[in-house]
Every structure is written in structure tokens, then in C-alpha cells.
Amino acid sequence: MREVFQQxxxxxxxxxxxxxxxxxxxxxxxxSAFLNSDVVSADEAIALADANGSKALALDELVIRILAxxxxxxRDLRVLVSALRISASLDRMGALAGHIASIARYxxxxxxxxxxxxxxxxxxxRLDVELSKRVxxxxxxxxxxxxxxxxxxxxxxxxxxxxxxDVVLGDDWKENAMYTVDVTLASRYFERFADxxxxxxxxxxxxxxxxxxxxx
Amino acid sequence: MREVFQQxxxxxxxxxxxxxxxxxxxxxxxxSAFLNSDVVSADEAIALADANGSKALALDELVIRILAxxxxxxRDLRVLVSALRISASLDRMGALAGHIASIARYxxxxxxxxxxxxxxxxxxxRLDVELSKRVxxxxxxxxxxxxxxxxxxxxxxxxxxxxxxDVVLGDDWKENAMYTVDVTLASRYFERFADxxxxxxxxxxxxxxxxxxxxx
Lengths: 216, 216
Prior knowledge:
The structure is a homodimer.
Chain A: H1 2-36, H2 39-70, H3 74-107, H4 118-141, H5 144-168, H6 177-209
Helix pairs in contact in A: 1-2, 1-3, 1-4, 2-3, 3-6, 4-5, 4-6, 5-6
């Protein structure tokens, strides 16, 4: 019985890792779409985000079936409840990256990013892609040091997010309202994406250290 | 044993209803802050949103304890897993309303809404407050007709959200970038708030009809 249960937990973990990998692909394609007005990547990102949502639903079903059959307690129970939350976060991350791709789609063949903010968004995109890759590794290895590193990188994304507002609300900003809307929303999506990575790493830290906390 | 379990389920339900009521208060205060530059309401909304987050954590702990002690299966198990998700949505709704209050706080003593979009945001605010009140009732009674009504009202919020973009991207929009940023983000928060109401009503519908689906 215990062996079956361990197999099931491994299956849950594998599926979470797979979702994290997909999420990272979605963000790579969405960023490329957003930064380079690449409509093919945009469409791929949007399609992958949809598929990711279906994977989240299927994973939740699997977790519920395991809960029903195994009636786990203590740490095993918390692992499964955490899996539900992590799958919800990965689902949202895919959706947020999909929204970034949609902005690129709407503006095509025009650019969604004005040159003044290009470097800012390139760094945000690079960090978000890196963060989502770290999530895959973290979910495979539950490495607490990696979790701490993630939290530090998220702080940089927050800084870049605030910088977008500083630029847009500064005296030198002469772009039209369309650019203002696009960069405001895109920056929010990049920032929320990184927030979810932090949420996931907090859950994983908990599983390792025993501290159950949504501390920020 | 069954009686104890029923009492525990009732406790979970009561706490969800209480969170929904708090969420509705947060949105009322946040909307008032946003529409009337009312800084006292803004601070109250932000404080209540924090408290709501703590309630969500406490409720999750309770659900996990019940899962561990009672090892529920079938419908009981799904009720508890749904409770975890509903509590996460109510937590996010409080946070989103808190963000709306924060916008008002930043712009104080100035207004966050230009006159051209005032009526639009008044209607969004009214609908969001109404939607969150309906969630309280729905969680008390699991009334499927009410769930359908909620889905229709959310469609109107989406329409108002799209209208904000039509106005901001239209030729007549002459407001500065600060207004553009504020209304873009606020509209997004109002829209996401309503989305969560739909998610909750979908979960409740499921519990009544047996169809487990995140269909939109």
C-alpha cells in the first residue's frame, strides 16, 4: 500500500515538474512575442497556456483520487494539498504569460514595447524565464537554498515593475496611451508571474522545513 | 463521528461565508475610496484585506486538520477541496480590492478616476459589490440559479472592462499617463475580482450538480 502511495506521489511530482517546464516554455515564447512582435510565438504561447490549464485540471483530479483512496495524514497530506496549490499557481503563470502574448498579438505588426522601456522588459522577461526554470528544478529536488535565491530574484522583478511606473509617470514619457496601457498591463503580468514563483517556493520550503507560511 | 464531521463542515462553511462578507465590505470601502478619494475608507480596506488573508490561512489549516482526522471520501472530500479553493479566491478578491484602495491612497488628495470614466467605474464597483454579496448568499444556500445569475453579471463587468480600453485608446482621450495607468490597473482589478466570483460559483454549482469543471 505504502509503495503504491509513493508511486502516486512521484506521479504527482512528475506532473508538477512537467507543468513547470511547460510554463517556462510559455513564458519564453510570450516574451519573445512581446519583445520582437513575433506573432507565431504569441499564438504558440496562447495555445500552450490553454493546454497547461487542462493539465492543471487533470492533476487536481489525480490528487483528489489519491486523497480519497489513501487517506493520507501528516506530511503526506500536506504534500498533496501543496500540490493542489502549486498546480493552481502554475496554471495562473501560464495564463499570465498568455496575456503577455495576447498584448503582442493585438499590437502586431506594431511593437508593444517602446524603446525607452525595452531594456527594462528584456530583464523582466529574462528573470521570469529563469525563475520558472528554477521552479522545475525546485520541484524535482526541493532545494531550500534555491527557494531563497528565487525570493531574491523576485525582489529584482518588483524593482523593474516599479521602474516601469517611474518611467511612465515621469516627465520624459511622451508615448501614446496605447503604449501606456500595454506596458502597464505587461509589467503587472510579469510581476504576478514572479509572485507565483515565490508562492511555490514558499510551499516547497515548507515541505522541507515544516514551516507552513505564506510569508512574503 | 458523522455528527462531529457535519459540525466541522458547518464550521468551514460559516467561515467561508464570513470571509465572503468581509470581502464584500473590503470592496465597498475600496470602491468608495477609489470613486470619492476617501482616504479613510482606503486605509480600512487595506487593513481588512490583510485580516482577510490571515483568515484564509486559518481556514486552510482547519480544512487540513479535518482532512487528516476524518479521511473523507466522495462528496465530502470534494467539499473540503473546494473550500480550499474558495478560500484562496476570497483571499485574492480581498487583495484585489485592497489594490484598488491603494490606487486611491496614492492619488490622494487627487482623484484616481477622470470624469469621462466615472459612470463606467461606478457601475463596475456596484456590480462587484453586488457580486460579492451574492457569493455570501450562495455559500450559505448553494443556490444554482444564483450561480447562473452571477455568471451573467460577470459578463457585464467584462464589457465595462473592455469599454475602459475603448475610451483610453480612443481619439478623445486627453488625460495624462497617470490617469491612463490608474484606470488600466483599476479596471483589471475590478474585472479579476468578478472572475473570482465566477470561479467560486462554478465550484458551488459543481457541488450541487456533480459537474466538476472550470468552464468559463
